Amino acid sequence: MATRLQNNGMMQLRNQLAVAVKSIQWSYAIFWSTSVQQQGLLEWSDGYYNGDIKTRKTMQPMEFNVDKLGLKRSEQLRELYHELLVVGDTSQQAKRSSAALSPEDLSDAEWYYLVCMSFTFASGVGYCFSSLILTLVLYTFVPVHSVLDGSKCIRMPGRAFSSGQHIWLCNAPCANSKVFTRSLLAKTVVCFPWFGGVLELGVSDLVTEDLNLLQHIKTVFLEFPKLRCSENSISIPWNDDNDKDPICEVDHDVLDVTGLENYDPVLECGGQTKLRTEVFPLSIPSYVPSAETEFNQNGNNELQAKVCEESKADSPDSLYESDPDQLTQDSFMKDGVNGGDSQVQSWQLMDDDDFSNCVPISMNSSDCISQTFLNPEKHFTPPNSEKSNNHMLDLQDCNRTKFSSLDLGVNDLHYTRTLSVILGNSNPLTALPRSHNGNKKSSFLMWKKERLVTPQKPHSGVPQKMLKKILCDVPLMHGNCFMKVRKENGGIDELYITEEENFDASHFLLEKNEKLDDQILALRSLVPSVNKFDRASVLSETIEYLKDLERRVEELESCRELTEFKSKGTRKYLDIAERSTDNYFHSGNANGKFVNVNKRKACDIEMMCPELDWVSQGDDLAADVNVCIEEKEITIAVSVPWRECLLLEIMEAVCNLQLDAYSVHSSTSDGILSLTLKSKFKGAGPVSAGTIKLAIEGEVSRMLLSAGTNDS
Amino acid sequence: MMDSNSGQERSENLFTYDSPYPIYAMAFSSCDDNSKSQHRIATGSFLEDLNNKVDILSFDEETLAFKTHPNLSFDHPYPPTKLMFHPSKPNSPDLLASSGDFLRLWEIKEGGDSDSDSSSPSVVQKSLLNNSKTSEFCAPLTSFDWNPVDPRRIGTSSIDTTCTIWDVERGVVETQLIAHDKEVYDIAWGEAGVFASVSADGSVRIFDLRDKEHSTIIYESPHPDTPLLRLAWNKQDLRYMATILMDSNKVVILDIRSPTMPVAELDRHRASVNAIAWAPQSPRHICSAGDDAQALIWELPTVAGPNGIDPMLAYSADSEINQLQWSVLQPDWIAIAFASKMQLLKV
To answer: Which InterPro entries has this protein been placed in (chain A) (predicted)?
Structure first.
């Protein structure tokens, strides 16, 4: 960065900047001078930062007074910028004093200021004077309107330089990026030529164009001897004696002369007493969150929330740093928790009994001191509503253009690039602590970005092969034994209950219940007659069912011995359900008649029916229905005295139950219709075996009854 | 004691041990009874049968040689899913824990004298911890963590959705919690009574033993039911933990103050990540290793750049790296395991 003035000159220049920017309570002043290396180029010469400060680092805190701190800060920022650049060039780890700033110490306004140092501007004029150019930027967060005619495509400081006119740019982020290339944080920027250079002033609030204010700024500069600002600065009123503070003196003078009150009406339209509390520092590269957030202070809270969300969503990475800020604020608001909790304190909180409550909100170990040392009191008054309304109209327009130009704006690109350079270089600053065992080098190499980042397939073809085997397959190796034992225990694993009294058993109860429920449900589906859901009923019904089954088995065994099938007087017909009826030739059917039909073929059976009319009228009207559900397959076995159309009716009943029959095996023997029907669930929910049984039994008995009455 | 130089490379900063078997589990001892230059490392074989072994090796920084100790090898029928030494220097002897079908504690008895060369050290199984009272079998354990603050406590994670907290001194279950909806894959202690676990249900949950009724979900994988496989809690800065997802090249860095929103995703691996370890001596560094055969050391920036985070350092191995351990005792050493090799890397 060229035009290095003599120290004295620099000192004086900076002091003047300080006076100017502080007298109007703006955030920073930058002085752009012409480059000695490249004619016609404006570049950073000096600046004074008067904005918010995040972390203050000093060697000896007591050494400086408040005003001195401002100068010190500006110096530190400049040092940091150089340091970052140097590190980037040489990869050397600069020796840093403990008081030096690190990138993480900066507030976002400071970032803005820092990044400004990397900009240069074409002046738009082919010649330059050797005299200095001062640029003051006033940057503001609330938009008013652009005073620019926008006719020229020269960036702002350069334009001010070439035109010789001052430029007052409000709501800089909304401005055409051709006019102002750094439209990120600065909202109102004023540039005017000064001593053949450009002075740029910015403040973190909205300020409408005010010639008085401008005049005031100029006056501040003019009141200082111009000679002393020249390159030849021979004598300086306050010399290098920094202990004596020039700014204070000047402040009084200037403030008295002009009177800050005069400017209040102007400042009012900004109305921002709250500075960058909603700022997401890290979102800056991709967004303009701070600016937008502040817009909405005018009342559009909804939009604000949305913007916040968007900025969160758009740059999740950025929350790394911004979240602590936000959390801090949240907890301020909600709990009134004292800010500035250190990490240690946070964890002490966790030591308290309400750990889980603390986790989401109270980990606000932010070391952020979001206050301005130099501006303990903002003089801004609440918004003038009339003006604000006007501004809202402007705001809408501005927003539109801004949103559309955000992604590809040159300014954003530059900002992003600069940031990534700075951040990329900051890594070696905090190198991994290593033990100083000098004779051994690292096995690791510096990571290099590969141009073609092709996803690499593991040799085995299965990603995370061994990890998955360890987590999924190995447990199954011994899990099989584990599961087997579980089953032997009746499917209910008595979980270990600890000896400790305060042991929380509800979890186990819950798990047990879940397992139990599953088993009960399974049991329920096996027992046809169960209609209730509670466990006691299911179990008692099951007991009854088992007894019934035993009885039937006995009957079946005794019946087998009978050569003649005398069904009269027999209470029940035999259960001849067969669950594996691949063999259609049912051995029990003496006449070997069987019909294997699908649903369509059922008509054939019906037509056959009259020929087979050998019904014994005196038969019991009992129907024996057995339903078995195995997974999705339902086997229904029906044994019933034959009636006309009975088969059809049963099929219909099955159909009504949302069952899709795909295999029907029926035969008639000794006046008994035996039907084995396999089907699947058609509908959504499975029907219980009991329901099916009931429905078919109902249908059959209805048929039998009606047939019986007809016959008699 | 046998001296075995198998696999040692005459490289100043890289040492390879060739095991007869594929290696998965691995652990550095925290016991510095030996001289500073001695590392004690346990490796567990990964064979899909019942003939697995755990070997305890030592590495001498003076002679730059691995030593195997036949007396310190023992059978471990099922592959150990994790090995870990007692986290702080015990009075003696050194203790090793292994998980798998059970949680087991092994005691490593040094030789008679302080000079371990004079008589042979040995290993005995100190206890076998089964968290199932009624069954001779324990629900399979996927991982465990030994509480560094309160070494009486070991937490195990199991496929039966529970985490069990053991009092290993008394050999009893302190508590057992149903931690997740699905298999629990990893567990990590934060402080004496606080642990976190990851699961096939895709969530990271924090538990406080003082309030067992509640757990806090601090992260859920973006696609529901993407299992989270491993978890590492930053012991230097307990605000941060890291986890990895199934079939993902990302290391997800979580800040427990911002639940559900990861503060960073480290995605420069070119294949899935298998293991992660925070630096024991720095709050801002983490190492990850994956199927791309790379071990990457990352520094978490205070301010994330716009293009994501690049790793600082990289090491390329011969094949997929399955395991990664960062020595707490000598933090300038990292051990990785790939195939049947274990390598010591100088950071």
So the answer is: bHLH-TF_ACT-like_plant (IPR054502), bHLH_dom (IPR011598), HLH_DNA-bd_sf (IPR036638), MYC/MYB_N (IPR025610)
